[in-house]
Amino acid sequence: MKVLITGGAGFLGSHLAEAWLGRGEEVTVLDLASDAKVRHLRGRADFRMIRESVLNRDILEGLVAWADLVYHLAAVVGVEHYVGDPYQVLTVNINGTQEVLAAAFRHGRKVVFASTSEIYGRSAAVPFDEDGDRVLGSTRIDRWCYSTSKAAAEHLCFAFGRMGLPVVVLRYFNVYGPRLDQMDRGRVVTIFMGQLLRGEPLTVIGDGSQTRTFTYVDDAVRATVAAGLAPAAVGQAINVGSEEEVSIATLASTMVRLGGSTSPVIFVPQEAVYDRGYEDIPRRVPVVRRMREILGVQAEVPLEEGLSRTIEWFKRQSR
Ligand code: UDP
After folding, report:
1. For residues 190 and 318, what is the distance between their CA atoms, to the nearest angstrom?
2. 160 CA to middle of ligand 1, Å?
3. In the annotation, is 146 catalytic?
4. Does the beta carbon of 280 lie inside 6 Å of ligand 1?
5. Per-residue pLDDT tens for 106-139?
6. Alpha carbon distance 21, 110 (integer Å)
7. How far apart are CA 165 and CA 154, in angstroms?
8. Residue 48 contacts residue 29 (beta carbons within 8 Å)
9. At what angle do helices 57-66 and 96-107 cross, to 10 degrees?
10. Centroid of ligand 1 to alpha carbon of 214 (angstroms)
11. Which residues pair with 239 in a beta bridge?
12. How far is the CA of 187 from the centre of ligand 1 (A)?
């Protein structure tokens, strides 16, 4: 099989590329980012990376024609972007998805689209069922532009689905693991990682009672591969996550303990970390019935195990 992964040089995409190569398939990655996360794959006959934007129509057309299966992961992600560059978030995430879907439609290729648990916003109907409501704040709060961009992209997926395109929407819940973001940047696990490896205080925003379910990347990748293969997944939105709910305060103290660090955990107001335009989500937990029943996958790596592996990996990188 020939697998195209847009955004394949990113965190999840690079692990997904490895998984498909491990299954003996050919992989092409289309990504604007540096090839740092897939450098170890370069030189293989069954792998190539094209450093281009998904908004480059000619390149995209050729690659979609080449592929048997298309994963669309290319997007602007990370809270610092939602609040720093909403224009890019909206343009790449909405227009990029439209371009990928249109090309796949012309060539009759199945698309698996990487959406997000941010879709549900700050809905109080926890755990989040795929058919549940979305609850978002004002458009004056930049944080919601990411959720909105992914929701518009999902609508495009389902609209193309109605026209006959086989499409699967996956909503990821805080995936983490080796190669996540650059240390000190991006998501909470990498921000805490930098702080704990330097022995500095871990900055928990607010009172730390907000919760997440962190999903180890290997579990997310198994679900993502299954979504490309399972006929029953077509036309569905499926949560990809773990049910192990943890508060951010507990995440911080657990990472300090597992990392053998002496860092204290401190509580800071959100303005200390993000500019205006940020609003936190109090609780985020998925319903995983579809993931289990349609994809045949359950999260298997417990949080402490996944965090230990991740801390080890970052420690090795920083040596
Ligand atoms: N967070 C924190 N300290 C930081 C960065 C993030 O306490 O230095 C919190 C953030 O407020 C949120 C959680 O960690 O409650 C997860 O944040 P992240 O940006 O990783 O992803 P989100 O789930 O909010 O999209």
Report:
1. 13
2. 33
3. yes
4. yes
5. 999 999 999 999 999 999 999 999 999 999 999 9
6. 19
7. 13
8. yes
9. 40
10. 11
11. 171
12. 6
Kindly state if the Cβ of 174 falls inside 6 Å of ligand 1: yes
Contact 12/221 with Cβ under 8 angstroms? yes
Percent of the chain with pLDDT over 70: 99
Cβ neighbours around 49 below 10 Å, total: 22
pLDDT, tens only, 29-49: 999 999 999 999 999 999 999
Mutate to test the pocket of ligand 1, among 248, 266, 270, 283 (most ligand atoms within 8 A of CB): 248
Strands 69-72 and 110-116: parallel
Does 273 have pLDDT greater than 90?
no
- For the CA of 195, the closest atom of ligand 1 is 8
Rounded-to-integer distance, Cα 76 and Cα 91, Å: 9
Catalytic annotation, pick one of 146, 172, 216, 274: 146
Lowest mean pLDDT, pick from 13-17, 183-187, 229-233, 263-267: 183-187
pTM over 0.90: yes
Comparing C-alpha atoms, which of 222, 204, 196 is closest to residue 12? Answer: 222
The length of the chain in residues reads 319
Q: How far is the CA of 149 from the centre of ligand 1 (A)?
A: 20
**Nearest in space to 80 (alpha carbons), one of 191, 1, 246:** 191
Output the six-digit token pair for 236. Answer: 């569905």
pLDDT digits (tens, 9 = 90+) for 141-150: 888 999 999 9
